[in-house]
Amino acid sequence: MPGEGGGSCSAPAARHPKQKRKAHSLSIRRTNSTEERPLGTHRDMLEGQDSKLPPSLRSNLLDLFGQIEREFENLYIENIELRREIDSLNDRLAGDGQIVDGGDPNKGVLKAKASHSTSQLSQKLKTTYKASTSKIVSSFKATAGSRALCQLQKEYVGHRDGIWDLSVTRTQPVVLGTASADHSALLWSIETGKCLLRYAGHAGSVNSIKFHPTEQMALTASGDQTAHIWRYMVQLPAPQPQPDVSAQCDDDQDSSDREEGEVDGEGPGEVPTIRVATAALKSHQGVVIAADWLVGGRQVVTASWDRAANLYEVENSELVHTLTGHDQELTHCCTHPTQRLVVTSSRDTTFRLWDFRDPSIHSVNVFQGHTDTVTSAVFTVGDNVVSGSDDRTVKVWDLKNMRSPIATIRTDSAVNRINVSANQRIIALPHDNRQVRLFDMSGVRLARLPRSNRMGHRRMVCCSAWNEENQSCNLFTCGFDRQAIGWNINIPALLQEK
User: Fold this and answer.
1) Three-point CA angle 367, 369, 373, nearest 5°
2) Residue burial 191-220, b: 16+ Cβ < 10 Å; e: rest
């Protein structure tokens, strides 16, 4: 501040040299030699000379100079003794028949030792250099491979604020859904990137979107403390040829070079809009952060910042169960694809497994495997749960034995809403640092999605979702840069690279 740059700083600056000098004198006194001797004629001569210094200050300076002289004298004596020991050692080695290169202590044994240590250091430096260069080369190979294995297909631009969540329909026609902080959810044509439908029934940020397993219905959760169920009907446009957007990309360039307002593609424009929900679920007392359909689609579960998860009947919007136990706000909820199991994650560093398979018993298990907010926990097609956290780790758990994770993935940034491919069981990790990485279930890294000033996300990546069809596999990501991106993942080549 301007006021702090004036006279208030001059006084401490003036005191600083005195404080340093005082500390220096104390350190000299601590290292005083035990041998005390009079200062002798040198001090008498100095005291006899004329000086403008005050007598007390001059006396103090003379004491300091005397102490310095004694310290140098002690060092000189120690140096002489060390030279004598070196000469004696050289004489012994010469008497044993070993060749000594002269009697100079800078040569002989010391030179041999120095030469040996130098050669060792040189060899170590060569080894380290080779290892580091090989790592650099391998990293270049991985980057080039990532471009071939993971290619950007389409950008979906049209939201006016950050996109929190996205999902792909499970029924025909296959479309992409995005949930945004601009209070809307949009449905997109995957092939053309055209916006097909807008849902504008929420009065707050739309935090998640999930599609019914068999019908054309969507479930959205919102900051207006509600979850909505709404029906949609869309007609896909004819596909158009796509330009090669993956050409001439530099994976190491920072994508923040683009301006915040620069986006490619066309916005939703005038598209059909739905403003009224088929059903509104209103039992929460806080932000509804996530919602999902239970297997069969007759019930839904919601997770809220009021520290509870609710189970509803879809047909009549009736609240069936309130799932309490988390100590802090919930961050995510997910249902098992084939069984009546629900997993909820929370800021209290835990995630909970709720079992509704037996109508008379609703058991719950608490898992404490993270040290920070658990941002999401999802089921796989098999008997696994994968959890991601702000503690920069992702853990893979076995439902049959949840005492400890079977694999731990450590990253360099907080992990947001993860997703696991159903067929190949590949984990997609969206990060706060705008990266998206792919891992297998054993924790082996498979690839990193390309990112440059021409492609990739410019801000935090919030969520990921898979769409698998035979050998072709698409991964969708969304973030705070207001866009969703579709990637083509070459699964066979990816697994062969592994």
Assistant:
1) 95
2) bbbbbbbbbebbeebbbbbbbbeeebbbbb
Phi, psi of 294 (to 5 degrees): -75, 160
349-386 b/e (C-beta count within 10 Å ≥ 16 → b): bbbbbbebeeeeeeeeeebebbeebbbbbbbbeeebbb
Count Cβ neighbours within 10 Å for each residue of 121-150 and write b for 16 or more, e otherwise: eeeeeeeeeeeeeeeeeeeeebeebbbebb
| pLDDT in the model for residue 108 | 44
Tokens of 69: 């002289």
pLDDT at 50 over 90: no
Per-residue model confidence as pLDDT tens digits over 313-342: 999 999 999 999 999 999 999 999 999 999
pLDDT one-digit tens code per residue, 235-284: 888 766 655 544 333 333 444 444 444 444 445 668 999 999 999 999 99
CA distances from 164 to 170, 188, 333, 488 (A): 20, 16, 14, 21
Contact predicate 482/155, CB 8 Å: no
Lowest mean pLDDT among 18-22, 421-425, 431-435, 474-478: 18-22
Provide the CB-side half-sphere exposure for 428 (13 A, CA).
Answer: 27
Average pLDDT score, the chain: 80
| CA 412 – CA 287 distance, rounded (Å) | 29
**Are the C-beta atoms of residues 474 and 274 closer than 8 Å to each other?**
no
Query: Could you report the per-residue pLDDT of 359-395, keeping only the tens digit for each?
Result: 777 788 999 999 999 999 999 988 899 999 999 999 9
Structure tokens, 444: 């082996």
C-alpha torsion sign, points 76, 77, 79, 84:
positive
The tokens describing 260, both together, are 């915040």
Q: What is the DSSP letter of 170?
A: S
In sequence order, the 6+-apart residues with CB closer than 8 A to the CB of 12 are: none
Given a contact cutoff of 8 angstroms between Cβ atoms, the answer to whether 388 and 410 are in contact is no
d(CA 275, CA 230): 9
Whole-Å CA distances, 145 to 412, 442, 490: 21, 21, 11
Strand order in the sheet with 361-367: 330-335, 341-346, 351-358, 361-367
With a cut of 60, say whether residue 107 has pLDDT above it. Answer: no
Tell me the pLDDT band of 54, cut-offs 50, 70 and 90. confident
User: Cβ atoms within 10 A of the Cβ of 337, count?
Assistant: 13
Total-model pTM: 0.68
- Model pLDDT, residue 67: 86
- Encoded amino acid at 146, one letter: S
Angle of the 55-95 helix axis to the 7-30 helix axis, nearest 10: 50
Tokens (6 digits) for 154: 């389409």
